[in-house]
Amino acid sequence: MEHGMTEQLNVQQMAEKLLAADNILILCHKNPDGDTVGCGSALYYALLALEKHAAVLCADPIPGRYAFTKPRLFKGEFEPQIVVAVDVASVQLFGEGNGVPQYTRHVDLCIDHHAGNSGYAEFTLLDGSAAAAAELLYEVICAMHVEITPHIADCLYTGLSTDTGCFKFSSTKASTHITAAKLMEAGAHVEELNTLLFDTKSRERMEAERIARNHLEYHLDGRCALIYLTRNEIEQSRVDPADLEELTSLPISIEGVKVGLTLRQQPGGSYRISVRTAKGVDACAIARRLGGGGHTRAAGCELLGNLDNAKSAILSEVEAVLDAPQEEA
Amino acid sequence: MEHGMTEQLNVQQMAEKLLAADNILILCHKNPDGDTVGCGSALYYALLALEKHAAVLCADPIPGRYAFTKPRLFKGEFEPQIVVAVDVASVQLFGEGNGVPQYTRHVDLCIDHHAGNSGYAEFTLLDGSAAAAAELLYEVICAMHVEITPHIADCLYTGLSTDTGCFKFSSTKASTHITAAKLMEAGAHVEELNTLLFDTKSRERMEAERIARNHLEYHLDGRCALIYLTRNEIEQSRVDPADLEELTSLPISIEGVKVGLTLRQQPGGSYRISVRTAKGVDACAIARRLGGGGHTRAAGCELLGNLDNAKSAILSEVEAVLDAPQEEA
Asked: What pTM did the predictor assign?
């Protein structure tokens, strides 16, 4: 897959490509989230309404909390004529499970909102300013003249709300709210969805969070807050490790904290460190000093050695970045 | 104040009443939240733009997190010609502090979204389906032909987002998202506001939450979850008791829990119990059995006696309601 070999389509052109096709395989990204699953299911039901053969394929199982979107999972029951990826920024993100690689050698269409999309598909509908791929797919389904049923609205609302932390993250634009309003008018069950997606935590997750909060430490005059979970603690709480992702936003949410750190011990013993920063502090610069990377406000790295070593290594890099002369924005 | 003696106005009529007045006193409710403060400040700046004299009065201090809305606080510098209440459902909610009672004997105008508004004002703009009073005030300010400046947009967004838990609560309607979109287009600083309003917790609040989570108990086969804080714990954590309100949503957020209980010991030693329920379970019915009251999904009561007595009293009422034959909705 060469970078940037893709041809950019607008919403209308993407709708026409889909309308012209049959036997359509929809690909989600690995470690599927609400946006890729919501889009996969919404597109499946839109294509079904057009009496096309379609199914969804993902390298990993669909998480239980998104099961209600009820995607038809691909079991090889047709020969894909068109492969379309939803919310997948690069080929690596397709993953390896469920026989996915045999369908990613040539991806025909891609609908995505990641500004860094590598351009792996033949045709791409990309809007890096969209808060979720679901925002784009909503437009595409409307352009295909398929009715947004309450179920399709639920699927798209799942993508929109999970990718924006229920309209809280900075990615939320005026257009995001407009799309949410349209999905509600189309019958999305927003009350039930918000409870399911944002206000339901497993007992195991509660237990792991309790332990992590008991480990809360302040460093560097309160400018840095740190929580951690050892492997033993993660295993004893029996939490699904995917459920711990949200914990990484906890330390940075404390008043006065500029850098929030979450250390989770991995099965091999190393510590995975999630770095979250307040506006004006570069998380990626911190992670990069220890061989990691990421975005400006959210980055990560992995350190071998015991907890104390991992802590002191990351804290000295945090201190270096916090005490560096402030660059002009 | 007689109940229901008010005359209902529409948005246009309310705008005309305000346009015709000068020396306008804006009243907020006691224990001010983001909606009453946001509306008070937004209306003050709208009236200022019309070169009217106006100021805001509240029985309690404006919480620090809403200080940025910068309401001009009333210091008796003019003789109010018109008194307008924002987000105040009944006269009792004005409170007693700051000389408020001398201005609540006759309230001219009221802009509110509480379906149970007692009709205490001479003229009322009421929409019980609006998610926040800010949603209505936005329409009124537009009808007054005042430009929604970025600051007015910030004030109204504060009301809209805090009253809906950032668009998560069931009160959120399609129109709520439409108003949010318009406020963003008017220049509301949504990223900074969301961080301030939803992702900033004090160290004291973190400590109190840590203690409460260590007290998490499951009862009635996991259908009921309970947390508590004794007076000593509240005082030792030095948390502002107002900051504990949000904790009441914690137990009900656990998978499988139908009734979530939060017990907070009051300065006099009694336990204030907050009852939150899943859909289909009547929180008010539980609280009423112990002399309390509230809404269907959120209610409360207060019990004398020690922690063990309070727990067993409330748990037996929870059990009675959970085990009662299910009424048809």
From this structure: 0.91
